[in-house]
């Protein structure tokens, strides 16, 4: 940690008690309390002149007056440095970022908002009126361009073409991201294609409900597929259990998903899998409402073992995976992952 902090120009303060285990001695506790009290009395600058922002996902995409709207590739470091350098200029450097928005800090005393402001970003330069409250920039064909200030692109229900779908804040995966907002478990009322799959789906759903109570002290909302309403689809991520033969909602949208079933097998990322012994799990924009997710056949992806400490309660699967049902689950590893990966920035399979 000290090494990586030093790379950012930060010093890691070490307070080490003599002969201590996992606790503070009196001397160390006094140093820690005094230091934290000193930090707490330093006024927070709500409109800093300079921002150094690093992220790996659009789930966490905002700092002060900067918002990153799109990445070139998720889970690679994306970095933006934005600085108000004079009363009429803002300099920006970025990497692995393809769209960003500046909310001009009108309470910042260094900016002269009565004249024009020069925006410099990498090798591009733009002049905008100082009274612009919001400035949006997009990188296309390796060049930056000004764009009209706008929210994330609105999609029509059912529009899940690669040209329409783009990873954005709150719709970027991975699977566990669906459980950071309102969701519904949608249970099947039909019969799965095989008894093996039916048994596995029942066991996974039962365990998912149990684990939500054990680890989060909560009970997920559960609805049968035939009872799902338009309002449910509009306002919730849908966690679909079963296969197209058993779950009517999954059957309704299966042709718009990146997994394809036939009689005894399913295809995912160009590979065929026996549907009696394997199951696809994934997250994807809901074809019935592309502002929300659908998730297939899984709850959160960390195991029962993680209930002992929240330091382990982190995503264990990416955007999609194939699970071998013949491998017994245990407290650390719920099942065997045959294949897994992330979708690209347009929710398509990656080549690598």
Structural key phrases:
5 helices; globular; 2 domains; Chitobiase, domain 2; alpha+beta; single chain; five-stranded mixed beta sheet; 352 residues; 32% strand
List the helices and strands and how they pair.
Elements: H1 2-7, H2 26-40, E1 50-55, E2 62-63, E3 66-71, E4 78-86, E5 89-95, E6 97-103, E7 116-121, E8 124-129, E9 134-140, E10 143-147, E11 183-187, H3 195-216, E12 222-224, H4 230-235, E13 237-240, H5 248-253, E14 259-261, E15 265-268, E16 271-274, E17 278-286, E18 289-296, E19 320-324, E20 336-341
Parallel strand pairs: 5-7, 11-12, 11-13, 13-18
Antiparallel strand pairs: 1-4, 2-3, 3-6, 4-5, 6-9, 7-8, 9-10, 14-15, 15-16, 17-18, 17-19, 19-20
The number of helical segments is 5
Beta-strand level of the residues, as a percent range?
Answer: 25-35%
Q: What name is given to the CATH topology of the largest domain?
A: Chitobiase, domain 2
Approximate helicity band = 10-25%
CATH architecture of the largest domain: 2-Layer Sandwich
Distance between the termini: 30 Å
Which residues form runs of ≥5 with pLDDT under 50?
150-155
Q: Tally the structural domains.
A: 2
Series of H and E elements: HHEEEEEEEEEEEHEHEHEEEEEEE
Within the largest sheet, what's the order of strands? 12-11-13-18-17-19-20
Q: Indicate the CATH class of the largest domain.
A: Alpha Beta
**Main β sheet profile:** 7 strands, mixed
Mean pLDDT: 89
Shape verdict: globular
How many beta-strand runs? Answer: 20
Q: What's the Cα radius of gyration?
A: 24 Å
Secondary-structure content class: alpha+beta
């Amino acid at each position: 940690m000290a090494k990586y902090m030093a790379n950012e120009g930060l010093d890691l303060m070490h307070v080490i008690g003599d002969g201590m285990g996992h606790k503070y001695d009196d001397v160390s506790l006094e140093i820690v309390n005094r230091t934290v009290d000193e930090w707490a009395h330093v006024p927070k600058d709500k409109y800093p002149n300079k921002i150094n922002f690093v992220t790996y996902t659009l789930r966490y995409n905002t700092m002060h007056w900067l918002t990153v709207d799109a990445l070139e590739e998720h889970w690679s470091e994306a970095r933006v440095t934005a600085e108000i350098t004079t009363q009429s200029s803002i300099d920006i450097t970025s990497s692995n970022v393809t769209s960003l928005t500046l909310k001009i800090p009108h309470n910042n005393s260094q900016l002269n908002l009565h004249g024009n402001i020069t925006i410099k970003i990498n090798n591009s330069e733009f002049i905008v009126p100082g009274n612009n409250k919001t400035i949006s920039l997009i990188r296309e064909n390796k060049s930056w361009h000004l764009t009209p200030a706008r929210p994330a692109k609105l999609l029509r229900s059912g529009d899940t073409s690669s040209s329409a779908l783009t990873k954005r804040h709150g719709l970027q995966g991975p699977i566990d991201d669906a459980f950071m907002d309102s969701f519904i478990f949608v249970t099947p009322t039909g019969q799965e294609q095989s008894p093996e799959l039916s048994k596995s789906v029942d066991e996974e759903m039962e365990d998912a409900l149990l684990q939500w109570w054990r680890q989060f002290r909560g009970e997920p909302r559960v609805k049968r597929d035939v009872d799902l309403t338009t309002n449910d689809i509009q306002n919730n991520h849908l966690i679909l259990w079963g296969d197209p033969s058993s779950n009517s909602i999954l059957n309704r949208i299966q042709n718009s998903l990146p997994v394809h079933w036939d009689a005894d097998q399913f295809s995912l990322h160009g590979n065929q899998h026996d549907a009696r012994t394997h199951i696809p799990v994934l997250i994807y924009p809901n074809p019935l409402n592309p502002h929300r997710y659908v998730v297939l056949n899984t709850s959160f992806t960390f195991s029962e073992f993680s209930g002992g400490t929240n330091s382990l309660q982190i995503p264990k699967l990416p955007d999609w995976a194939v699970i071998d049902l013949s491998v017994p689950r245990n407290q650390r590893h719920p099942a065997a992952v045959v294949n897994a990966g992330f979708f690209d920035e347009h929710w398509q399979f990656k080549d690598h």
